[in-house]
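Journal club prep, notes for RB
We'll compare a predicted complex against what the paper describes. Inputs for the FE2/S2 (inorganic) cluster case:
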Amino acid sequence: MNVQGISRSLVSYGDAGFSRFLRNTFLASAGYSGEELSRPVIGVADLSSDYNPCHRQMDELVANVKRGVLAAGGIPFVFPTISLGETFLNPTSMLYRNLLAMETEELIRAQPMDAAVLLGGCDKTVPAQLMAAAVSEVPVILDVVGPMLTSSWRGERLGACTDCRRFWARYRAGGLSEAEIDEVEVSLASTSGTCMVMGTASTMGSVTEALGMMLPGGATPPSPTGDRLRHGTATGARAVELARQPVLPREIMTAEAFENALRVLAALGGSTNAVVHLLAIARRAGVPLQLDDFDRVSRDTPLLVDLKPSGAGYMEDFHRAGGVPVLLKSLERTLHVDHVGVCGRSLADVLAEVEPPAQWQEIIRTVEQPVGPPGALAVLRGSLAPDGAVIKVSAASPELAVHEGPALVFDSPEEAAERLDDPDLDVTADHVLVLRNAGPVAAGMPEAGSLPIPKRLAGAGVTDMARVSDARMSGTSYGTVVLHCTPESAVGGPLAQVRDGDLIRLDVPHRTLDLLVAEEELAGRRAAWQPPEPPQRGWRRLYAQTVLPASLGADLDFL
Ligand code: FES
């Protein structure tokens, strides 16, 4: 029993008795009784924001978590943190992941709580909360708002945001009118919740469950459902038990837990963003996870879940088929089943109550009958990415897995956006589109890596091209897109030296990515290279000066 409740983290007035007296005075004004304040205090991080429509029903989830806390004999204290709405943050929500991680870490430490429930969902929120949890000195349990339900347009099933990209590409190619794309725009995201494909939000929710930081079954219940709210109530109740018998997140986020999470990531064909996030979380948890571990685990893990963008289904299908527990059941023989998560039971005990994938569904498969072969995620190295790059093989075109072509270079996402629509752009389907100055230092690593197919080629029916960058791409994207090239161009990485027409060779089976230019020529280019100016002030300056490379998780070096 380690409950200190409201007496934790007293304000430093040099007189602890006075600090407690003053705190009680203000709590009395909020109507709390002495009995209530003798209970375990559960901090509940609420990431509601008008700038984050994915979280628009978070208040219901918060209410259910509070119910669970109260029913279990605790007292909930809800506190806000910044909420990172993926489509609302310029230049990218990734620039603010570390800020949310830092804020959450500090508020858990500075405010009185015996345990914390962190409620997230939209892409960067859950990674930031796991980063904060990794260094917490009180128990932490996560829950998410859950995915949206699907909708339809003219009889075609729709979901954000793989279909957002598909329909936009169709519109760019002249296949949809203005009126039609307007109809699609209001049909793609029709309920509360996070993107309902296996994008970053769904991936990170599933990975959190696999890490053991969320109660079993929490990743998939759709946002508007009772299943989601019941899971919130159970989470609140469990937080009180964790406050009474504390288990710290770093005791849960072990090397074995990360190995399980990598296995799940590979079997899901999950977002490439999870690579950067898991590296950052592991670094904080003191687990020596490496970029190559993702490739190693992926090589012997088949694709087992048939969800977009790698497959066909949506999160509600995954949920109805049993969600992450059934996937874990399929993977059981390859998992560390002794691992104990926030639920307090070993994975073996949890899975003893789970049936293998049912015959009536096709979304979750067995290892014997997978959706796709092993290797959904690959790590590449070579002269263009000495410290590594990542490609989502399961969402790429097999015919481009080995490809050699001339580079067409863009110096920024803005330049790419401008020139790719130029009807006179000198480009063929064999070109390799290269985007630079989009890594962590240069731009906070926006999801600009899946450059659109040049408009002229898209109109001629080209749907995929090899693309290479130091950017990320959305977990809902697809295509032959090499990402996270490290070192990035803004610190003088090889991408900075590429010129139009240089030959680039991509060889996914051999895990290589090379710039086919003679070393003497490259040495001359390197000598003439000038680094970009850092941002002038504020968070962006601090970020650019202290952010680690993507291959290390892009956390700040002092955290
Ligand atoms: Fe929030 Fe996709 S935009 S999860």
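Talking point for the session: The chain has a mean pLDDT of 96.
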